[in-house]
Design brief:
With 384 residues, the protein is mainly alpha-helical. The protein has one domain. The chain has 16 helices and four strands. The strands form two sheets. Strands 1-2 form a two-stranded antiparallel ribbon. The protein is globular and about 65 Å long. The relative contact order is 0.16.
Length: 384
């Protein structure tokens, strides 16, 4: 059986990759929450920061849910393998995001039992744990997981389970691979950079601006070190290639690096994304002219960089979720996708995506038309 991905499968891998890249950008909310106690030294300053982030936290949560839903609908075997096998990691991520939602809802509720300080700590934990765990989980797409896939089990009345995890850690073993840790830390520091840049862009307060500007620079160095370290590690590692004639998965040296060379558009996206991220950081911290637009350069660069890396995983005869213990159980956009009928119906519905994005952009601009100020907080009847 030949490995011949269809246009629909490639289209939906692009949609999933785009949602994943948007999610990484929107983690600026988590990054800003981590910096709450570093930037906000008074109750008023913390309220300004939380209300600025509170206007956007639902975008991140909704994108996370949409990303998971799109993956489930278009590539259900990945959903059942990763979410059903490495469930400790995903349960931890889900719990942290539930804690975030509760914190924004109840921090300023009159008479709340835990007090505002407790919910602020919850927001910090959501940022700290959510970014690192998401980065580590995504890294397993590059490094692989410990799972078996046997579609013949569907015919078994006693054990109709296609995917099974090979150890009792169920995803937690990902932290034993330094490459996963490197990407987890890279996403962690990137979220902090994006969070500081967003605070600079959305809050009118000189002291907050100065503190956030310093934190952008402080987090830039560890981010670049961990991200470049991750890229070097995966580019020099064996990749999981697919023989198009037999559909067999095999190890191929420098596979992911070769993918970028053989798909120059993705290489161009990666280089452009990295340059935009660096420009967003330097224009905010090193330029003599005061700039508040770094979030847009850095955010656009984040989206392009993540998009190029995720696309390189699914295209060019590559297994996007390799199995470390059974190469032939590795998932590809062909063997893990939904039926042609399902993908076709979903593609028709996806025509609405540009309209949804346009609405999000409109709502974003409407909420950010006026920067958060101390005066506004004193007059606002609803605050987070």
């Amino acid at each position: 059986m030949e490995y011949t991905p269809t246009l629909l499968q490639e289209y939906w891998w692009f949609i999933v990759s785009l949602l994943g890249s948007l999610l990484v950008f929107l983690l600026f909310v988590q990054g800003g929450q981590m910096l709450l106690f570093r930037i906000g030294k008074t109750a008023e300053e913390k309220t300004m920061i939380i209300n600025s982030l509170g206007r956007k936290w639902e975008f991140t949560f909704t994108t996370l849910v949409t990303f998971g839903g799109a993956f489930f609908a278009s590539f259900p075997l990945f959903y059942s393998t990763s979410f059903g096998g490495a469930y400790w990691v995903w349960m931890a991520i889900l719990f942290l995001f539930i804690v975030q939602a509760v914190s924004y809802e109840y921090r300023k509720k009159p008479g709340n039992l835990l007090g505002s300080k407790t919910y602020e700590v919850f927001l910090f934990l959501n940022g700290f744990g959510g970014t690192f765990l998401l980065g580590t989980a995504v890294a397993t797409l590059f490094t692989g997981g410990n799972f078996y896939v046997n579609k013949m089990n569907l015919a078994s009345a006693g054990n109709p389970i296609i995917s099974s995890w090979a150890n009792p850690w169920h995803g937690l073993e990902a932290v034993a691979d330094y490459r996963n840790i490197l990407l987890g830390l890279a996403v962690f520091f990137l979220a902090r950079i994006l969070g500081a840049l967003y605070i600079i862009n959305s809050i009118e307060h000189e002291t907050i601006f100065t503190r956030a500007q310093k934190l952008v620079l402080h987090n830039a160095v560890p981010f670049l070190l961990t991200f470049v370290g991750f890229l070097i590690s995966i580019f020099l590692s064996d990749g999981f290639a697919i023989n198009p004639a037999t559909s067999k998965v095999y190890l191929l040296k420098y596979k992911l690096f070769t993918n970028l060379i053989e798909m120059p558009v993705l290489l161009a996206l990666l280089l452009a994304g990295v340059c935009l991220v660096i420009w967003g950081i330097t224009s905010t911290t090193l330029s003599a002219k005061r700039s508040t637009k770094g979030i847009w350069f850095c955010g656009s660069g984040t989206i392009l960089t993540v998009l190029s890396l995720l696309l390189s995983l699914g295209y060019n005869n590559t297994a996007y979720y390799p199995s470390q213990i059974d190469l032939q159980s590795s998932l590809t956009i062909v063997n893990s996708s939904s039926s042609t009928y399902t993908l076709t119906v979903m593609s028709v519905v996806s025509i609405l995506i540009p309209f949804v994005l346009a609405y999000i952009w409109y709502a974003w601009r409407a909420m950010n038309r006026k920067k958060v100020t101390l005066e506004e907080m004193s007059k606002e009847t609803h605050t987070y």
